[in-house]
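DM from R.C. (forwarded with permission)

"hey, sorry to bug you on a friday — could you get me a structure for this? deadline for the figure draft is monday and I only need the backbone to look sensible"
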Amino acid sequence: MTAPAIHLLRLANWGTTLARRRALVGIEEDPNAPTALRRLVKLARLATFTSARGPRDYAGAFRAIGPAAIKLGQSLATRPDLVGEEAAHNLLSLQDNLPPVPFEKIREQIEASFEQPLEALFAEVDPVPVGAASIAQVHKGVTSDGRKVAIKVLRPGIRQKFARDIQTYEWAAAHVEAMGGEASRLRPRLTIANFKRWSNSELDLRREAASASELAEQMAGVGGYRIPEIDWDRTNGRVLTIEWIDGVKISNVEALKERGHDLPAIAERLVISFLTQAISAGFFHADMHQGNLFVEDDGTIVAIDFGIMGRIDRRARQWLAEILYGLTTGDYQRVAEIHFEAQYVPSYHSVGEFATALRAVGEPMRGKPVKELSVGQMLDGLFAITRDFDMQTQPHLLLLQKTMVMVEGIATQLNPDINMWDTAAPYVRSWIRDELGPEAALADRLKEDTETLLRLPGLIRRLEEKFPPKGGAPEPPPLPDIPLITDRREREGGSLLGYLFAGALGAGAMWALLAAGLFG
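My reply, with the result:
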């Protein structure tokens, strides 16, 4: 267990780094922030002799702190309710790239993890990485059987660095949440817990490979979208080997045009593929930024980098689909009811008032292209009303919100006139009809009742184990409840002399009965 003094030293170091770039001024000026926290961040700024006026470089501050902070900053980019709109927008530009690790250390990492020479696994590995991020870097290679692959290798010591920093994040979040008020409603501890879970998943490349494999199965029937194949023989916890993709980055609009691609069609395909993952499968690529999507010559979108994945259970997906459909059709009353059914809004609030607040957010955006109004702006508007209705943060939806903003940004680049609502509505309507219609309700009831009937034999066996059948001996008669002198309550209420007197009296009565011949 790390000592509090160590946490405080780390926080002081990080705090001064943030303060120098004015990344804490937003907290300092936020009237909803706990008073103690506002005083601390002001002290950090004054200690660095930094004025409150001037540009605020949130992304630069997180980049300067280190790899774990870069990932944390990217997560906080989805939380304008927690860090403010200006900080969230700035953090969206936080690029996850660092100077590469020398190839000799990468070679050592590969050989140590497989316990064999590099040449036994790969016929060729380019020593110059094609990408170097905070957790891992990627090299192009050729396997011993001649296949072109991408080799992703963890940075040496990165797991230990993340574990150390996350311990301090947890410690700090617990103390901030204990301040109560707005800090408690925003649930920073749960935010860090989710960040820890996502990071641990990214730091085990076998889990990334498994995520890619699972997503490939889920999307097998969706045309125009695919996942590269995993080379399981050359994959372990520290090394991931995956099919090399020779495509055009989806952000390179000019190159896509030169190759004759239909950009509006690609944009629509991207939106539908995301909805298929999030709503139909409940398992989606949650790091769908421009660098992780490629377009092949036939127009197929290929996704890479599966370190961050989102998962939503079926009931939450049903609520989500109804919320999206309600917003697209203007049925704000139903959207409000769902928020109460899901217990996102406490029951002491008015459903009607919440529906009116939703209308104020959603109505200005209906029927307009993304270039005028966006999903990101809608999320900002929703966050603005959460405080009025005491809505707690829903961490299971944070990755979804982040990915929606990413998908929207890419789709807008490909087709500035795209309307996310109009594109999503037919898909969501179809899914709701299939999943929530009368046929689906009947099928769910039959499935549930059948499963209940199948559980009956096991339930009966457990009841028999708890209450076994009577044996051959007759059932004993009920016996009276006789208080004992050893009973604590009686012992507390009486005295030793009283017990001796009662014992003598009982013995005398027994002698009298024997003398009378009653037991003879």
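R.C.: lifesaver. The mean pLDDT is 80.
me: no worries. Residues 335 and 483 are 63 Å apart (CA to CA).
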